[in-house]
Amino acid sequence: MQRLRLKFGRFKPLHFLSHLDMLRMWERIFRRALIPISYSDGFTPRPKISIAVPLAIGMTSEYELMDIWLSEMMSVIELENEIQAQLPDGLIIYDIHDVENNGPALQSLLLHAEYDVIQHTDRQREDIQTSIKCLLAKEELSWHHARGEKTHYYDLRKLVDSVWIIDYQTGKCVLGMRLLCGDKGSGRPEQVIRALNFDSYPESIHRNRLIIQDIIDSN
Asked: What span, in angstroms and rounded, lies between the C-alpha atoms of 203 and 190?
């Protein structure tokens, strides 16, 4: 069995696909490209495809990671050529490489995710900067959000590594965020926006990097 790691980007018009729909799309791509994907055991075998972390509906990303397992060996070049011919608009592959077949699960390696967030606002740059400093100075920030009929309570501050202003213009600012991402919890950019006292949902949220253990990618 061969295990490979794909780095890909997901842009419009695919930004409204759910995580499950994205997995199904990849299944169709591999099937049409005649890629020998390995399947799980059991009564309902599933393709052995693992995306590092779901991307929320409405977001775009230039840095998604996915592991796949093949039942037959293929060269990386051959694999990429076959997949490229099947990619829909909005899906871009940046890199494919072999990884250790019995290595740790991709999800267990996640540390942080970085985002660019475009926010419409009438606030001044100094006011926004003050809100960022106040948020980062907190030791704890109790937070909750509803998930179906259940309410999830947690410390939002622990999920925020850093926030900074990338650009500011009258009526609009672009914020950078590095948020915790992994089995200890994952920060959500729209909740950080609320914690910074903005009164509207971001115009756009774009994930530009995933940071995983032992891999520091400067791209």
From this structure: 10
Q: What pLDDT does residue 123 have? A: 94
Token couple for 101: 């077949």
- Asked if 16 and 88 sit in the same domain, the reply is yes
pLDDT the model gives residue 217: 45
If asked whether residues 137 and 70 sit together in one domain, one would say no
How many domains are contained in the chain?
2
Model pLDDT, residue 41: 84
Q: 46 near 24, Cβ under 8 Å?
A: no
Angle (CA) 22-26-30 rounded to 5° is 170
Please state which of the ranges 23-37, 138-152, 156-170 shows the lowest mean pLDDT.
138-152
Contact (CB, 8 A) for 67 and 1: no
| C-alpha angle 123-126-127 in degrees, rounded to nearest 5 | 50
Cβ atoms within 10 Å, residue 88: 10
Who's near 88: CB < 8 A, 6+ residues apart? Answer: 14, 25
Measured distance CA(192)–CA(101) in Å, rounded: 37
Q: Which of the 8 DSSP states describes residue 103? A: S
CATH, residue 139: 3.30.70.3190
Residues of the domain holding 55? 2-103
What are the phi and psi torsion angles at 145 (to 5°)? Answer: -150, 150
Neighbours of 8 (CB within 10 A): 20
Q: Average pLDDT for residues 152-175, to the nearest whole number?
A: 94
What is the distance of C-alpha 116 from the center of its chain? 12
pTM of the model: 0.89
